[in-house]
């Protein structure tokens, strides 16, 4: 699997900015995170994880921190 470091390195090569002056690392990471977020919003199963949820009394439950959507209950 390709790592974030490899992706940023390839992008940096295409941008012809080896010292990361015009496109700082933090900015490239922001763009990467934006892209990942867009993919997950379009295809929630692309970033799915298996989590354990301790239910509380009542019909309304709270998703764990970082969760966007409940996909399935097993």
From TrEMBL:
Domain of life: Bacteria
InterPro entries named among the record's database cross-references: SU10_adaptor
The protein's name: Baseplate assembly protein
Organism expressing this protein natively: Escherichia coli
